[in-house]
Amino acid sequence: MEATVREAGTLGLAMFRTALRTWTKGESSPVSEADIAVNDLIESRLRSVTPDYGWLSEESLDGDARLGKQLTWIIDPIDGTRSYLAGREDWCVCVALVEDNRPIMAAVYAPSTDEFFLSRLGQGTTCNGRPVRATTGTELDFTRIAGPKPLVERLPHPEELVLHPRIGSLALRLCWIANGRLDAGFAGGQSKDWDLAAADLIVHEANGRMSELSGDPILYNRREVTHGLLVAAGADRHAHIVEQFRTNRA
Asked: Which of 114, 73, 84 is nearest to 197 (CA)?
C-alpha cells in the first residue's frame, strides 16, 4: 500500500500544474485526467494483489459487490481536486483498507509538501517516518481550528472569530490534526467515505478522535457513503467539543 500511494503521488505531482483535460460530474464536482490516471494506477496495483477485496473509489463506478466483503479498499485518488487544478499545494492521495466498517490501515500523501502519513490499527501514526501525536488539552484556540465558520460558530467563541485559513483537502485538514499542526477540524456535511476513511485512522492512531458531532463513530463501506457533520481533535479536546455541541444546540 505504501509503495502504491507513493507511486500515485509521484504521478499526480508529474501532472500537477500542466494543461489537463477537465470536466464536471454531478452538479459541481470537478474531475481531471489526473484524477483518472492516479485512480487507474492505484486500482491496477492494489486489485492485482488483493482481487478478493472490495473496492470503493471516488473515480470508479460503485456497485453492491463491496458490501459483502470483509475487507475493502477505499480510495480518493486526488482529494482537493479544486486546489490541484488551481495550482495550490493543499491536495493529497488517500488510501484506506476497511474491515467491518472501520479502517485498519491508511496512507495519505501530499506530494507538493512532501508529507506522507501512515497508520496501522494499534501501531500509531507516522509522518515521513516519525511518530506524531494530536495536541493535548481542552482549550479552544480558534486560529488552530479549521472548518466551516457557521458550524464552528455554534461553539462558545470570541465576538471576532478568526479560524485557520481554509484547506482545500478535507483529508489533509484532518491529518494536520494528527501531527499537531491544527488542534481541531470540522466537516460540514456531504463528505464521502473516500474523503474520510484514511484520515480517520490516522487521527485515531495519533491519540485523536474523529466522529459525528454526537460522538458516534463513523462507519464505512455501507450502502450510503455520505456523512453528516463531523469533528476531529485530540482525545480530550474532542470530548470537550462534543459535550459543547450537546449542551449548546442551535
From this structure: 73
Cβ neighbours for 77, distance < 8 A, ≥ 6 positions apart: 8, 12, 35, 36, 38, 39, 42, 57, 58, 59, 93
Tell me the three state secondary structure of residue 79. strand
Q: How confident is the model at residue 250 (pLDDT cuts 50, 70, 90)?
A: very low
Which string of DSSP letters, residue by residue, matches 210-238? EEETTSPPP--SSS--EEEEEEEEEHHHH
Tallying the residues shown for the chain, one arrives at: 250
Beta strands 184-192 and 145-146 are parallel
Q: Which of 45, 191, 173 is nearest to 110 (CA)?
A: 173
Chain segment 34-76, per-residue pLDDT in tens: 999 999 999 999 999 999 999 999 999 999 999 989 999 999 9
Chain centroid to CA 197? 6
Q: Is 35 helix (H, G, I), strand (E, B) or coil?
A: helix
pTM: 0.96
3-state helix vs strand vs coil in the chain, percent to 5: 35, 30, 40
